[in-house]
Each structure stands twice: as structure tokens, then as C-alpha cells.
Amino acid sequence: MKAQNNDNLTTYMSTYKFYEQVNKNFDKAAKYTRFDKGLLNQIKVCNTVYHVTFPIEKDDGRIEVIEGWRVEHSHHKMPTKGGIRYSHKVDEDETMALAALMTYKCAIVDVPFGGAKGGIKISTRDYSDRELEKITRRYTFELIKKGFIGPAVDVPAPDYGTGAREMGWILDTYRQINNDINAEACVTGKPIQQGGIQGRKEATGRGVYFGIREACNVKEDMEKLGLSTGVEGKTFVVQGLGNVGFHASKYMTEAGAKLVGVAEIEGAIYDPNGIDLNKLMEYRQDTGSILGFGTSTDLNDSSDIFTVECDILIPAALESQITDENANDIKAKIIAEAANGPTTSHAHDVLKDRGALIIPDSYLNAGGVIVSYFEWLKDIQHVRYGRMNKRFDESSFMKIAREIESISGKKFTDEELKNLTHGAEEYDLVDSGLEETMINAYQQIREIRDEHDLDDLRTAAFISAINKIGIMYEQMGIFP
Ligand code: GLU
Which of 213, 236, 304, 339 is the most buried (most CB within 10 A)? Predict the structure, then answer.
């Protein structure tokens, strides 16, 4: 394959700001791969961009036009996969950038999907539940009409502003039109009763914790930062207490890390003595705000969270939060990107030059799509994980335990016996698959970083993705 003149393409791509940020990171990594410009461009571009507008009738009878997108970034593997976001900030640029990140994310953690993303430009708080249902169903209908959804085509999932409820509406709408035996696999992150999977809700936050744990377990890396090994005892702050931020914080505190700062829309709080996460959630539920909580200090501005003393900073809200404006003031030594695209390309360089360890989004927040993959597999297999082997395993473990008792003369207590003979339930298998995937991917990225003598995990993660996708294209050839 020969390199070609892609000036028009370059101009086209640079009209998008966030998408261009993603491409800048891609370009940094592409230098370390052997692929020519034409192939690299094919990996970078968004294969299909669908912009749709449709009317809905509001509860008061008025008609409102709703704007949405679905972007399938890469068809090198099918189906394509990625969440649907409801936010007033959604636009084409954001959807394209997030779809591209999904492609790289899936490749990094060996989830066999191309990347996609959808978005509807609405603030959920401006709509009633009935209106949100109408919007979701109509958007799904538009996707069906154009072939942008299906178990083998494109499989949405939750993202910012959406959850299991919306995914349930999507499935129900899809099912009314497609009498497909695999229909349940057309969307993931669904309620359990509709083909969802145990552990999907907490998956992204759980994966964030596993990723941070892996990073903190590398002695040399921690020594460079002047930190001890392990999560235990480390202080952290979180920006955003949504599904991802809450669960990441929950698993971090359970592992012995100390939450010292939290930022939300209404402001930020800091307490070097530690913040009780569950009590804070209850307090916010009651008062509508995190401000004034316990012995913590209210910070002047939500963005001041970035400047407080801590070991680990977890941005778990939206993109472009760490910028040239605040990168120099960040004191955290580890930046754990739970959100998608929280750090601009230049701010990344500033942090890196100051010696910070950045655990990149494309790896760290992949837990959601990893467990989505397990859900999709469950739906096309039509059987719950653990159903076939749980009881068989338990009786085998029981035989072994009884054998040990008779050989050793020791009698296990009921509690010991219960633990020893426990057969894996769906949640156990999902959690173990997620942990295994996060551990393996971290090792792969670290190896690439060391092989190229880089001091940067983001570039290493991109190299990993580009190599995997590039090799696939080389093997497939380009359709004549
Ligand atoms: N929205 C999530 C993400 O950004 C999950 C996507 C999925 O499960 O398909 O990774």
C-alpha cells in the first residue's frame, strides 16, 4: 500500500477540536509503528457519521426538535460498540472523538469490537421521564431505519446521562421491529431481567480501581514518584460522583486508600483527614449538595479540586478538564483518567514533564466495555454465566474437601466449607474476567512503554491499539 496525499482529510479532521486532540495522541504514537500514512489515516478516520433530527411532543403539547448523532468510528471489527450520551454539550466533534476513543479502548483490552458512540443534545433535567422515553425510543427507531443498531452491527450502551432504564427502552423498541433471536444483544447495560449482566453497573469504576492497583503495584514506577507500593494508605481526590466516580472511590477506599477531596457540579470539598464516601452520598441526597459536609472545607470553586494535595487525582466527569490553565498547579503524582478525554494533549505533556504518572482513559475506563462484551456474549449464547457449572463445581469441591478431611483428620467448620466449595456465580465470573483483562492489558502497555523507552503510558496504549488494528487491516487487505 502506498502513501497518498491526504491534505483534504487533514483539514477536515482538524476542524474538530476534541477529535483533533485524540488524533494528536494517535500521531504521537503512530511514529513508533511501521504503518504508512494511508493506513494510519484509515485507522484514524470515522467510517460513518449519522446526524439525525426528529420531533417529539412535549408533555404540554408543544413540538420540540431533538438533535442526535451516532458515529461508527471503525468497522475493522464488527459489531461496533459504544455508549449513548445525553448532555447539552453533545455535538458531532465530541461524538466522533469519543467513538474514536472506543476503537482504541477496545483494541487495548482485546475486546473484539470496532468503536462507536452516540449522543443526544439534551439536558436530562429539562425533560420528564415520559419525554425521555419518547426521545430514546424515537432515536432508536431512527438508528434502526438507517441500520445503525443490531447485535452484529452496532451495539449501544450507557454513557453520561443514560443508564439501564434507557437501554431497556432501546431493546424494547428494537424488538418491536426486529424479530431476531439475538435481539437482546442489540444493546448492553440493560436491566438484568432484560438480558443484562451482574456487575455491569459498577464495571467501569471497578476497572478503574483494578487499573490503579496495577499501576501502584509497580515498585520502580512508585519509587520514581517517591511513593510506596500499593493502593493502601494513598490519598486520592475524585472529580465527579456519578456512576464511575462513585464506584471507583468505593473500591479505592475498600482497598485502604483515603478519599480527601470531591468535586461535583455544586462545588468541591477537601478534608485531609478523610471523607466517608457513603455518608457523603447520603448527605448529598438529603441536602442536594456536597458543600458543608462534616469537617471538610468547602473550596472556592469546583475546579480547585485539581490543586489540592493528594497522591492520586481521579477525573471522573467529562472531557477537557485538565488543560493548560490548571496542569501546572496539579500536585497529584498519579492522574487516573476515569473519564474519557479529561486531559488535553498539551496538558498531558505538562504533567508528564513534571514527572506525573498518567494512567490513560483508553485503558483505565475500559471496564464498562469489557463487561459489555461479557453481556453481549451472554445474550448471544442465551445462557447465564455459571448456570451449567456452578453446582457441578460445588459438588466436586465438596468431594475434595471431604477427602482432605479424611486424610488430615481435620474437620472444616461450616463457614470454611462454604468458602472452600463455593461455585462461581455470574458476578464472580464477570469480576474475575474483568480483573484478568485489566491486569493483562496493563502488562502489555508497560511492556510497550519499556520496549520503546517511553515515559508515557498513553503513547504506549495508542501504540498497542494501532499495532493491533494495523495488522488486521494488513491481513484483510482493502476491499477493491
Ligand atoms: N460508555 C462506556 C465507555 O465509554 C461503555 C461503552 C460500552 O459498554 O459499549 O466506555
Answer: 339
